[in-house]
Amino acid sequence: MPPMIVGHRGVAGTHPENTQASIEQAAKLGLKWIEVDIQPTLDDQLVVCHDHTLERCSDGTGRVDEHTLAELKQFDFGSWKSSEFEDEKILTLAELLALVKELDLSVNLEVKVDTRHQPAHVVELLHDELIRCSMDTDRILISSFSHRVVEEVKKHMPQYRVGMITEQLAQEDKTTIECVDAFSCHLNYANLTQADIEYLKQTGREIWCYTVNQSADFEYINHVDAIFTDYPTRFIAQ
Prior knowledge:
CATH class: Alpha Beta
Oligomer: single chain
GO molecular function: phosphoric diester hydrolase activity
Number of strands: 9
Domain GP-PDE: 3-238
Strand order of the largest sheet: 1-2-4-5-6-7-8-9
InterPro entries: GP_PDE_dom (IPR030395), PLC-like_Pdiesterase_TIM-brl (IPR017946)
GO biological process, one term: lipid metabolic process
Protein name: Glycerophosphodiester phosphodiesterase
């Protein structure tokens, strides 16, 4: 059975990633799920952005967490992709959740942390935002590469499903997956093995793989539950 198609950062192949334009395009294409990245600002607001630095996807400089939300809202997050997306603004998590609800989308929130962040604090910010959200919990999946984030989410928000992200499935990942009773494991498709599939299926986990942009590249494409892609039109019937 073909996997579910998840729009990676919206439709990142053709639109500026993690922006309103990209998410709206996913809805226009008929997708049911998108994936976006969230991280904190200097003033503890969660915003939708993948990189911890601003240079690649905006006209700003420095780290996201070195700027207040008001400062980040001054930057252009669209022109780097194309002039047609000029002045696209960074989304807050609250704005993102309102948008996906309006567009009848479900969303995978990937929590981005590095050594500058306290995972427990970031999860607390996420908790505070989600308790104000009226979306059904089964339309939100929370994931992270950070074992600590996944553990904190399960501890403080057990009503939400969690996904463990990893480049290659290791024993440490399996331990966390089992400890938190993860809904899913999100793997780099290039590193997925038959043994991984068997383990995850036997333990009742869904398998979501990133980032698949050519079906011919992924021999296990019909053995996983979902794929993240920058180019959804390559996988869906028009």
